[in-house]
Structure formats: structure tokens, C-alpha cells
Write a structure and sequence with these properties.
The structure holds two protein chains of two kinds. By secondary structure, chain A is of the alpha/beta class. Chain A is built from twelve helices and 14 strands. Chain A has two domains: 183 residues, Thiamin diphosphate (ThDP)-binding fold, Pyr/PP domains (Rossmann fold), CATH 3.40.50.970; 128 residues, Rossmann fold. Helices cover 35% and strands 20% of the residues of chain A. In chain A, helix 8 packs across helix 9. By secondary structure, chain B is of the alpha/beta class. Chain B has a single domain, classed as Rossmann fold (3-Layer(aba) Sandwich), CATH 3.40.50.970. In chain B, 46% of the residues lie in helices and 11% in strands. Chain B has a six-stranded parallel β-sheet with strand order 2-1-3-4-8-7, sandwiched between helices. A two-stranded antiparallel ribbon of chain B has the order 5-6. In chain B, helix 1 crosses helix 3, helix 2 runs parallel beside helix 3 and helix 5 packs parallel to helix 6. Chain B is globular, with a radius of gyration of 19 Å. Classes of the chains: A alpha/beta, B alpha/beta. Chains A and B meet through helix 3, helix 4 and helix 5 of A and helix 5, helix 6 and helix 13 of B.
Chain lengths: 342, 325
């Protein structure tokens, strides 16, 4: 992936994978703030299904690293109560497919307490979950339902794509006085990169321009940033210069960065791993055309998952989610005439 | 309960009832938005339980929540303003009767999702346990909540983690219109506690002293690390489920009348009168004072401004800057 163009750190960095960055962040903040505690299925002894919480039990004890029964709704619900009562819980939900089990506690409780109490009650909590549609995951272990949660005012939603952002965003999320949903892409867990040491936060609600370009903007997030980048490499050889906006936060949405980029490039594709219908891509496409209609050289195109449940077998998965070839084709179609004009 | 506590419990029960009657009056003349969920007949539970708590203890409530708010120490003017959608209300008119929260008097919150705040109280108890503080949490809910999945999940966790929480089930025997017999295959809801590994107890929910004593025992147990208690308080709501429901399509007039004979206020006042701890004149003066105070508060609330017609997008989030530290 191209070098991140924002969130550059001045101080020393350490090379690590996203899981390690998340783990370091939890350790860092648990050591600094005794209100922070971790709970979830298999997070203590086993260290989490993806190893993110490994070692925390040994360091902080079972009072602050809690293995739980399989009760997603109560985990989120208890976190809400603990947060209102002065703690900073971090809950791990193993798959985003399981978030709907806790939907009432997320959407009608966590998200609304602050507003509906006239600001008297705060709910500072984080719910981490892994997501991504991938072969073998199948209909109940590989959903991309992040788009569903943008409908609920009061939730903040982050989706880190680099190890540095994983640290910066998670640290900001734990310290945020609001409920934050953290979507961690399965596609990105293996990514390595420099992570600033010490107290490093990335503000929630700020997108990053991952790659600067002048002909077309791809607005995307999560694992799709990698595909957008691979497509941009191919397109570069064809003389098409693509700018990539990585949302990093889905709520609040950084409308300013999106619109600035598209105002410059005049062409936009919104690329999302979630379902196309009624999804995140639709929201951003609408935002762009409402604000920049007269400046656009073509329609705002959505590239997103086909509206089917995530299947099991590799060819079926490949047919469902956007691939690099599809992105290249759509850019070529939209960018017809680029060379003549620029 | 000693004499002083009994008299205060009586005054609070009268206050809770008077508040519901004031709301009903305001609802009838369309001076209140949304519906009422009358607590008349159930006053002994909120008052009995909250009398057993310390100011630092926390409670979570539900849609029929005005009694809990009052018994825990809510400001009556702000409470009434919220019911009436006024800017001076606890939630500035954003929440209404079913949605408030204020830790200054230990009120975690209430919502309209049946059973939805049972995990809120349970999580607050988890916070207390992690902090090793002596505070406890109380979860108030109705019999209608006991068949919600999240209630089961939360109680199981309270059992596993021995959390300092009291589950106060106000069994008024109807979930809106559906009777308990149609909803569960057991007679006593408190037996469910056995499945979670803590004590369950069924008490007469119309006897404020019985409720108080049971809550006090449960609180002492929770405070000393003994874990949770399921306290089923058997009671009856005199009115319908909500303002427009006469409550007679699914309950006989005889049944309603028979429960009115078990009025918790009448029971305590007669006991105090018989034992010479209260005289008729004193009781009447106290009642008049309570009803008079509410009349004054209602006048102020009716005159209070509504919120401005505006959308404040920033209000959905707590300010990040203000919370650092």
C-alpha cells in the first residue's frame, strides 16, 4: 500500500502487525487508566480468537480481563451499564455477524443514552469486532454489516486499515466519551507497518488520503483499500491517476475530505465490501452528487458487494465481492477521455 | 422499619401515587405528551426497595418508572417537566417519561425496551465489583421482562460473577394485556434465580415493610460479596397499561377491586393508626401537603417553555474535549 499521507508521527516507531498494534494499545491504556477493562468470549486464557488480547490476563489479572459465556447482547448491555457507572469497557465480539444479537443494546441503548438523557449520561465504551467476506467464512461468519450501523445516531464507527491507525484510532476510541464500534478487517490483520510509540491517537471522524491522484477519487474503507491500491497501480500504467480516500471513520463521516478530493478530481467511485443496497456506498454517492453535481464529469459509481448472504465456496465469494479487475474496468469506463482533457 | 422510617415510607407512597394521579389529570386534558404508565397500586415496591439503599447505590428502571425516580430522589419539577416535554425536564424534552438518567442521585436510566435496562444495572454492578467499591445496583423490571433473552443473559452473568445487584421483579401479573399464566409455566418467578445460582425470593409487593426487609437483606448480602438476589414482588396495577387503556378488557372488575382492597398505602396507614404511631389528622395533613406541593409544581411545569424547534446535531455525542482526563 502507498505510504499513508496523514497521521505521520514525529517520534520513534516500531514495526508490527495490526493485531499487535491493537494489543499494545489495550496494554498501554489499561496500564494508564484503571477504568479500562476487557471482556468477551475467549479473550482471557486464550487471548482472543485472533490473538488481540493475548497476555492481558497475565498482566492485568482476571478482574480486568474477563472471559464470558456466549451472550453477545448482555456483553454489550453490561458494558453500557459499566460505562454509565464510570468504567471504560472494551468488548470483543468475534464476528460482525454476531452484532445483530446485541442490536437493541447498541442501537437503542448505547447510542441513545447521551442524547435521550439531555446529555446527563455518557456511555464511553468500545465494541471491537472482526469482519470481512472471505472463503470459508460462510453466511454466519463473514458478514460486512458495518453499513447498517450508520443508521443509528450516537454511535461512532471506526475501521482502521494500517497498524498505526489501529493504534491511534483504538486509543482515541477508548478515551472517547461515546460508544465506539471498531470494525477490524480480517483481510488486514496480517498487515505490517510502523506504529508510533507512546501516546498516539488518530482523531475519530477524519479520513486519510492514502494516495494522491488527479483524475478520479476512490472513496473506500477497510480491506477494500488494498484492492483500490492494487487497481490504482495498474491504472497508473495506463496513465490514469487515482486518488484514494480511506474513510477510517464511518461515523462521524469526514464529508470535508471526501468532497475536497472529488471537487479536485471531478470523478468518483465509492467502493465498499458491504452490500450495495441501502449501504454505506449509497450514502456517500448521494453526498457527493448532492454537493458536487455541477462539477462532476460523470456519474458517481458504486462498487459494492452483491446483495446476497456471504457464501462459503471461493468462486461464490469472488463473484460476490468487488475485485481489482472490476475496479479497473469501472475506472476505465468513467475516465474515458482523461488523457485528452488533462 | 422504625416509626420514623414508616412515616417517611407512607409519605413517599402518597407522593408516588399523587404524582401518577397528577400525570393522569394532565394526560386527560392533553397537557402531557405521550402516554402515562400508571404505577398506582405498586408504590410499596419502589419505596420499600429505595428505603433500603444508600445514596451512592444506583438503580435502573423501565417504562413504569416514575415511582423509582421519586423514591430514589429525583427532583419533582424536573421529572414532571420531562413528562410534559418541557425544556426544564431532566432530558430537556428529548426523552420523556421513559428516558431519563442522572447519576447525581444514582439513576442509571430507564428506556422503553422491556428488559433493556436489566443489563444496564448488571453492568453498573460489574463496575462496582471491579472498583471494589461497596455500592450496589438495583434493576427494576416487570413480569413482562422475564422472558426477554437479554434478561436471562444478564442474570446468568450476575450469577457467574457474583455481582452486587438486586433484581426487583414487579410482578403485576400482566404484560400489557397478556396474563402471566399465558406467559410462563411456573407459579413463582423467583424460582428462576436457582438457574442462575443465586437466591430468589417472593414477597408481598403491597407490603412496604416486607419489601423493605427483603431488599435490606439482599443489599447487605450484595455489599458483603454474597452476590445477586432475585426479589419477586407480587403486586397489581390499578390502572390500564397506558393512559388510554381502562385495563378491563383482560381483567375483571372484581379482580381489580379485590386488589384495591390490598392498597399498600391503606395497609401501612391503618397499621400506623392502630398502633398509635399516626393519627387521622396528621395523615390528612401530610396527604394535603403532598397533593398541594404537586399542584404547585404542575402549575410551574405547565408554564415552563417547550424546547426550541431546532435540531442540534452535536447533541448526539458527548464532547470529546470536555471528557479528557
Amino acid at each position: 500500500m502507498a505510504e499513508p499521507m496523514s497521521a505521520q508521527s514525529q517520534g520513534p516507531t516500531k514495526e508490527m502487525r495490526i493485531q499487535e498494534a491493537l494489543r499494545e494499545t489495550l496494554r498501554y491504556e489499561m496500564a494508564r487508566d484503571e477504568r479500562v477493562f476487557v471482556m468477551g468470549e475467549d479473550v482471557a486464557l486464550f487471548g482472543g480468537a485472533y490473538g488481540v488480547t493475548r497476555g492481558l490476563l497475565q498482566e492485568f489479572g482476571e478482574g480486568r480481563v474477563l472471559d464470558t459465556p456466549i451472550s453477545e447482547s448482555a456483553l454489550v448491555g453490561l458494558a453500557v451499564g459499566a460505562a454509565i457507572n464510570g468504567m471504560r469497557p472494551v468488548v470483543e465480539i468475534q464476528f460482525s455477524d454476531l452484532l445483530p444479537l446485541a442490536m437493541d443494546q447498541l442501537a437503542s441503548h448505547a447510542a441513545r443514552y447521551h442524547y435521550m438523557t439531555g446529555g446527563r449520561v455518557n456511555v464511553p465504551m468500545v465494541v471491537r469486532n472482526k469482519f470481512a467476506t472471505r472463503p470459508g467464512g460462510g453466511p454466519s461468519h463473514s458478514s460486512c454489516n458495518h453499513g447498517a450501523f450508520i443508521h443509528f445516531p450516537g454511535l461512532k464507527i471506526i475501521m482502521p486499515t494500517t497498524p498505526a491507525d489501529a493504534k491511534g484510532l483504538l486509543l482515541a476510541a477508548i478515551r472517547d466519551p461515546n460508544p465506539v464500534l471498531c470494525f477490524e478487517s480480517h483481510h488486514l490483520y496480517g498487515q505490517r507497518g510502523p506504529v508510533p510509540e507512546g501516546d498516539y491517537t488518530v482523531p475519530i471522524g477524519k479520513a486519510a488520503v492514502r494516495r494522491a491522484g488527479k483524475h478520479l477519487t476512490i472513496v473506500t474503507c477497510g480491506g477494500m483499500v488494498l484492492k483500490a491500491d492494487a487497481a490504482a497501480d495498474q491504472l497508473k500504467e495506463k496513465g490514469i491517476d487515482v486518488e484514494i480516500v480511506d474513510l477510517r471513520s464511518l461515523a462521524p463521516l469526514d464529508t470535508e475530505t471526501i468532497l475536497q478530493s472529488v471537487a479536485k478530481t471531478t470523478r468518483a467511485i465509492v467502493l465498499d465490501e458491504g452490500p450495495m443496497i441501502g449501504g454505506l456506498a449509497a450514502e456517500i454517492a448521494a453526498l457527493i452528487q448532492e454537493n458536487l453535481f455541477g462539477n462532476l464529469k460523470g456519474p458517481v459509481v458504486r462498487i459494492a458487494a452483491q446483495p446476497i448472504p456471504p457464501p462459503h465456496s471461493p468462486p461464490l465469494v469472488d463473484a460476490m465481492i468487488p475485485d481489482v479487475e472490476q475496479i479497473v474496468d469501472e475506472v476505465m469506463r468513467l475516465a474515458e477521455g482523461v488523457k485528452m482533457r488533462s | 422499619m422504625d416509626k420514623v422510617k414508616r412515616k417517611e415510607a407512607l409519605r413517599q407512597m402518597v407522593l408516588v401515587r399523587a404524582f401518577e394521579e397528577k400525570l393522569e389529570e394532565l394526560y386527560q386534558r392533553k397537557a402531557m405528551f405521550g402516554s402515562t404508565h400508571s404505577y398506582r397500586g405498586q408504590e410499596a415496591i419502589a419505596v420499600g426497595v429505595c428505603s433500603a439503599l444508600a445514596p451512592t447505590d444506583v438503580i435502573a428502571s423501565y417504562h413504569r418508572g416514575t415511582g423509582h425516580l421519586i423514591a430514589k430522589g429525583a427532583d419533582l419539577y424536573m421529572l414532571l417537566c420531562e413528562c410534559m416535554g418541557r425544556a426544564d425536564g431532566y432530558s430537556q424534552g428529548r426523552g420523556g417519561k421513559m428516558h431519563m438518567g442522572d447519576l447525581s442521585f444514582g439513576f442509571l436510566g430507564n428506556t422503553g425496551t422491556v428488559g433493556g435496562t436489566v443489563p444496564t444495572a448488571t453492568g453498573a454492578a460489574l463496575a462496582a465489583k471491579i472498583r471494589k467499591s461497596s455500592e450496589i445496583a438495583v434493576s427494576f423490571f416487570g413480569d413482562g421482562a422475564v422472558n426477554q433473552g437479554v434478561v436471562h443473559e444478564a442474570m446468568n452473568l450476575a450469577g457467574v460473577w457474583k455481582l452486587p445487584v438486586i433484581y426487583v421483579c414487579e410482578n403485576n401479573q400482566y404484560a400489557m394485556t397478556v396474563s402471566l399464566e399465558k406467559s410462563v409455566a411456573i407459579k413463582e418467578l423467583s424460582i428462576r434465580a436457582a438457574g442462575y445460582g443465586f437466591e430468589g425470593k417472593t414477597v408481598d409487593g403491597n407490603d412496604v415493610e416486607a419489601v423493605y426487609e427483603a431488599a435490606q437483606a439482599a443489599a447487605a448480602k450484595a455489599r458483603s460479596g454474597g452476590g445477586a438476589t432475585f426479589l419477586e414482588c407480587v403486586t397489581y396495577r390499578w390502572d390500564g397499561h397506558f393512559g388510554g387503556d381502562p385495563g378491563t378488557a383482560y381483567r375483571s372488575k372484581e379482580e381489580i377491586e379485590s386488589w384495591k382492597q390490598k392498597c399498600p398505602i391503606k395497609r401501612l396507614s391503618e397499621k400506623l393508626l392502630q398502633q398509635g404511631q399516626l393519627n387521622e389528622a396528621e395523615f390528612n395533613a401530610m396527604s394535603r401537603a403532598v397533593y398541594g406541593e404537586l399542584d404547585e409544581i404542575a402549575k410551574r411545569a405547565e408554564a415552563a417553555p417547550l424546547p426550541k424547534k431546532e435540531v442540534d446535531l452535536a447533541s448526539i455525542y458527548a464532547s470529546v474535549e470536555a471528557s479528557h482526563g
